Amino acid sequence: MRRLMTLMAAALALTLGLTACAPAADPIEIGTNTIVLDVRTASEYTAGHLEGAQLLDMNAGDVAAAIPTLDPDAEYVVYCKSGNRAGQAVTLMQDAGYSNVTNLGSLSQAADATGIAIVK
């Protein structure tokens, strides 16, 4: 019984974790005031990123450091390698009071959702 409860708790945690970092499913319209954030590492960014994306390395603490300087009224779309770091960044931003923040998932999902080209 205890093993079953442990497995059920692990499955629930995994399900909630995957749901929390799930990318946007619908196409995203990028306006002139939309800010695209790439929260991967500098080397990942250099290998290819959405044109016009601003790099804020989640692993290096750049997102947390930048939050006080970002415009809280702007629209933000965020992506990373898989959607996990983007989900973490979105949560940090929302916890800080940002209300218009979207997790686009991975680089390829972000490119598909926005129509923005991947550049090097």
In DSSP terms (H or I, runs of 4 or more residues), the helix count works out at: 5
CATH fold-type name: Oxidized Rhodanese, domain 1
Low-pLDDT segments = 1-21
So, CATH architecture? 3-Layer(aba) Sandwich
Radius of gyration: 16 Å
Can you give me a brief rundown of this structure?
With 120 residues, the chain is α/β, with parallel strands linked by helices.
Structure explained in plain terms:
It is a single chain. The protein has one domain (2-119): 3-Layer(aba) Sandwich (Oxidized Rhodanese, domain 1). Helix content is 42%, strand content 19%. It has helices at 2-20, 42-47, 62-66, 84-95, 107-114; strands at 34-38, 49-50, 54-55, 75-80, 101-106, 118-119. The strands form 2 sheets. The protein has a 4-stranded parallel β-sheet, with helices on both faces. The chain has a two-stranded antiparallel ribbon with strand order 2-6. Strand 4, helix 4 and strand 5 form a beta-alpha-beta unit. The protein is globular. Mean pLDDT is 85; it is low at 1-21.
